[in-house]
């Protein structure tokens, strides 16, 4: 038995400003129900609440004002859940709503509690339907889009696969709207800067995430050791077909050396409060030696943050090389930067740790 996260985009679930497409939702529910009956657990990450709320509010264009977005999300959440519940009832399946914000997953205890909740729902054979809590989330507490949320949820529950249902067939060699010779890329083993450049388009008028966002989500998930499929959500039975081993769209191959859960949380779930600028010796120690960061390697501090918060680490040119959880606040680091560990207690009056960031709390990676 495996656990699958299925992300469903707004363009799949809605009919522009006309609200939810119940026929499409019914089709997807039938597909996922078949997957569940085959013994797999499924978590859905669903967009569509704002689009559903637009219909209720009589809006013909996606609102730009935060208050209108949040009002539309509040109006649409009940419609979205009712549509899923109605669709899954046909197959004797029950659903549960889970609303998350970045603030919830940035705090380690609530991150773990969210995992426990999702796993408990799966244990009781419910299908969790996860969405960002747009009605309360501020820009500082938002994931950005549901593609990123889906990748974080996949890592959160140690999923075996992430399937992103899109309004396109997969990732192409070029923009298919501009180049008729563009072809689907069936397998991606390495997410290169060239691939990101090809997929650098903007999102639709209904949803936030374009293909570039999906590439970033795939990058996150594969670093957890989770394979990712980007496929057309308009095709009937595509999720069950993938789970039977049939090739569809584009598959991103998982990295062999995946991060553990804690490092994945640091890398992708926690919002950084600042940046530490490191000297070249510290950069080399972090990148090549897998060492902890000591105060002697810190040149300067950007931002204001407390102990146990996340920060970026950057070289003297400003290139981000890592992300980690600090043992000292920005105020304390201003006092001990460039100092030897033996001098920390003398400068601060006490010493919490020798390390500014311990290697177990330090992730070297490309941060999206």
Please characterize this protein's 3D structure.
The chain is an alpha/beta fold and 368 residues long. The protein folds into two domains: 3-258, Carbamate kinase (3-Layer(aba) Sandwich), CATH 3.40.1160; 272-364, Roll (Archaeosine Trna-guanine Transglycosylase, Chain: A, domain 4), CATH 2.30.130. The chain is built from 14 helices and 13 strands. The protein has helices at 10-13, 22-37, 49-57, 66-89, 102-106, 108-123, 146-156, 193-198, 211-223, 238-243, 261-269, 280-287, 330-336, 344-348, and strands at 3-8, 41-46, 94-100, 126-132, 161-166, 187-188, 228-232, 250-252, 274-278, 298-303, 310-314, 320-325, 362-364. The strands form two sheets. The chain has an eight-stranded mixed sheet with strand order 3-4-2-1-5-7-8-6, with helices on both faces. Strand 11 and strand 12 form a beta hairpin. Helix 2 crosses helix 4 and helix 7 packs parallel to helix 9 (211-223). The radius of gyration is 22 Å and the shape is globular. Residues 201-209 have low confidence and may be disordered.
Mean pLDDT: 89
CATH homologous superfamily of the largest domain, by name? Acetylglutamate kinase-like
- Taken in chain order, the helices and strands follow as EHHEHHEHHEHEEHHEHEHEHEEEHHE
User: Number of helical runs?
Assistant: 14
What is the CA-atom radius of gyration, in angstroms? Answer: 22 Å
The coarse silhouette is globular
Structural descriptors:
single chain; 368 residues; alpha/beta; Carbamate kinase; Archaeosine Trna-guanine Transglycosylase, Chain: A, domain 4; 8-stranded mixed sheet; 5-stranded mixed sheet; 14 helices; 18% strand; globular
